[in-house]
Amino acid sequence: MSILGVLPAVGSGLDTLARTGQLKRFFEYVRAWSGEFGHATYFSYLDWGIEEQHGRALQRVGRDWAINAWGGSWSPLTALTRPLRQPDHWRGLTVLRCMSLLAAVPALTAHWRWGIPFVVSYGADYQAIARIHGRSALHLRKWRWLQRLVFRSASVVLVSREDVAIRLGRKYPKARIVFHPNWIDGKRFSPAESPVRSRRVLYVGRLVEEKNLLRLARAVNGIWGARLRCVGEGPLQWALGGAHPASYRADCPGPRDWAELPEEYRAAACFVLPSLTEGHPKALLEAMAGGLAVAVADRVGVVRHEETGLVFRAEDEVDMRRQITRLLDDPPLAARLGAAARKDVEQYDIDVLMPKEIAIVRGAVR
Fold first, then answer.
1. b/e string for 148-175 if b means 16 or more Cβ within 10 A?
2. Which residues contact 286 (CB under 8 A, 6 or more apart)?
3. Residue ranges of domains in the chain
4. Domain 3-183+349-363 belongs in CATH node 3.20.20.450
5. Residues 229-272 pLDDT 10s
6. Which of 6, 68, 195, 208 is deepest in the core (most CB within 10 A)?
């Protein structure tokens, strides 16, 4: 009997997903994986008192799912030793599914101690993010060290961008690296029934420095009648839409439940992703699935300029404003690009990609 262990990023859990609006999206994974494994355990880093409500919901969604909630003060070091502290919960696992690079920290120990194989997702470029935040050389070396260990030990590394998968394949020729993009729910994220008459510019995601949001806010503030709406949470929220006199006057409602996001896309005139670094952004894919016209920075990928959206130079505020203005002032252009975007992202539908992921994880079972 195959037994699956699912690992979130160190220090997080189901409540983290709930607070950021992503819990129902994770439950789509659970539904897909249920029945494919004899038993599954989600290894939370939060206290059971915090996770209890979400744990019950998890067990309603997925048959034979359990939650291992073991809270306390967490660090990469304590995560590394977690399997040794709970051997009875780990050594019987037949495969581990790590949802991010940082999630793989305890999987390294389980693999070393009991030979448990693991499959890990690689999306965000953590070293690039660390550079943007001005982290020390020591911090960058830690990320390089972790990446090297994970790529050498993982049964499969799922990389969400094809160009990144190719680059990493050259760097780690002995690793099994598979290009596997993020999925979308094409039925849930569908186009609005009638054209939207607004000048709302939408961003969905974390409100952090690498997303280049202050430059976006300045660009939108220079467009007549346009209003920026940033759905998400993060340290830039006070600067974007707070009461501070220096704020950029954006609407910042905080995170919304994933199931409610289609309403955000259908109420917007366009979606903008100005990031300085990106993996395979789910919010962008969902906006495109909703037939919404999009404009993205040239470091994002996914979008083909003038075909499925518009592309601007990430650090060129004037170019950013120009491309957003085109979408707002030219409804036929926006409609054409939105329709092409919807068709283009059909290849990422959950019904297409999830069976492939399940086959990869099952193929790694010891």
1. eebbebbbbbbbbbeebbeebbeebeeb
2. 184, 185, 189, 204, 261, 262, 265
3. 3-183+349-363, 200-348
4. no
5. 999 999 999 889 865 555 688 999 999 999 999 999 999 999 99
6. 6
